[in-house]
Amino acid sequence: MTPDDAKRAHRKITLLTACVVAALAAPTGYDHGGWVNAVVVTVIAGGGGLVGGYLVRHRLIAALTKSAGR
User: Inter-axis angle of helices 35-55 and 57-67, to 10 degrees?
Assistant: First the structure.
C-alpha cells in the first residue's frame, strides 16, 4: 500500500468512526434531556472521534504502509 492509499484509507476509517460514534451518542443524549441535549452530545462525540482519529494518523499510516512491505 502506498502512503497515498494509506492516507485515503485512514480518512475513510476516521470519518466512519466519527459517524458511528455520533449516531450512537444521539439516542443517549435524547434520553437524558431532549433534542437540544441530543444535538450537543452528537456534536461532541463526533468531534471527539475525528480528533482521536487524527491524533493517531501518523502511526496508522506507517503501520499500513509497513504491513504492505514498503
Answer: 50
* Helical pair 3-31 and 35-55, crossing angle rounded to 10 deg: 160
Residues 6+ apart with CB under 8 A from 64: 1, 5, 6, 9, 10
| Angle at alpha carbon of residue 44, lines to 38 and 32, rounded to 5° | 30
pLDDT confidence of residue 69: 67
How many angstroms separate the CA atoms of 66 and 26, rounded?
37
pLDDT of residue 59: 87
Whether pTM > 0.70 for this model: the answer is yes
Provide the terminal-to-terminal Cα distance of the chain, rounded to the nearest Å: 8
CB atoms within 10 A of CB 70: 10
